Amino acid sequence: MSEKDKQNQDVEKDSVEKQEELSEADKKAAEEQVQKVVDEALEEAVEAAEDDNLADLSDEERKIVELEKALEDAEAKAAENMDLALRTKAEAENIRRRSENEVSNARKYAIEKFAEELLAVVDSLEQGLQAKAEHEESKAMKEGMELTLKMTLSTLKKFGVEQLNPVEEVFDPQLHEAMTMVPSPDHEKNTIIDVFQKGYSLNGRIIRPARVVVAQ
C-alpha cells in the first residue's frame, strides 16, 4: 500500500470515528434545525401561493377576498368581545348577589350581640321565678317578674329571637349542648329529658344552644 493510500485510509477512519462521537443531543439539535428550515420554507411557499392566487384575481375579486378576510377577523373579534362581555356580566351579577346577601345578613343578625347580652336578664328572671312565694309581697313581686319575662320574650320574638325548650326532643349537637347523660327506662336513647338552660335562635341561627340532660 502506498503512503497516499494509507493517508486516505486514516482520514476515512478519523471521519467515521468523529461521526460516531456525535452525541444524541447534537443529532437532535441538527434534526430540529432541519425541521425548522423545512417549516419556514413551507410557510413561505404557502404565502407565495396565496399572493399568486390574489395576483391572478381581478380587482373586484381581490376586493371580495379582502372583504371576506376582514369579515372573518371582525367576527372573531366580535366573538372575543362577546365572551368578555358575558364573563364581565356574570362577575357583576355574582358581586351583586354577594352584596345583597351581606346586606341581608347584616340586617337579620345586627342585634345578635345585643340579644346575647339580654339573655342573661331572661335567665335571671327565670331563676327568680323558680323560688316559692310564701308571702303576699313576694307573690306580687313574682307576678311582676312573670310579666317582665313575658314582655321581654315577646320583644325578643318581634326581632326574630326564639326561645328553644327542647324537652322530649331528640338530642342534636347542632342545637343542643349535653351537660350530662343519665339512664332513663322511660325514654328512648338520646332523648332530652331535662333542660338546664334554654337555648335561643336568631332568624334560624343558633346564638345559644340549649343545655340539656340526655337519656343514655
TrEMBL record:
Alphabetical list of PROSITE patterns matching this protein: GRPE
KW Chaperone (keyword) present: yes
Keyword Electron transport appears in the UniProt entry: no
Main location: cytoplasm
Stored InterPro entries: GrpE (IPR000740), GrpE_CC (IPR013805), GrpE_head (IPR009012)
Disordered as annotated region, ranges: 1-34
Stretches assigned to coiled coil: 57-109
Pfam families reported in the protein's UniProt record: GrpE (PF01025)
Keywords from the named record: Chaperone, Coiled coil, Cytoplasm, Stress response
Top-rank lineage group of the source organism: Bacteria
Assembly: Homodimer.
Protein purpose: Participates actively in the response to hyperosmotic and heat shock by preventing the aggregation of stress-denatured proteins, in association with DnaK and GrpE. It is the nucleotide exchange factor for DnaK and may function as a thermosensor. Unfolded proteins bind initially to DnaJ; upon interaction with the DnaJ-bound protein, DnaK hydrolyzes its bound ATP, resulting in the formation of a stable complex. GrpE releases ADP from DnaK; ATP binding to DnaK triggers the release of the substrate protein, thus completing the reaction cycle.
Family, per entry: Belongs to the GrpE family.
Database matches in HAMAP family: GrpE (MF_01151)
Protein name per its UniProtKB record: Protein GrpE
Organism of provenance: Kangiella taiwanensis
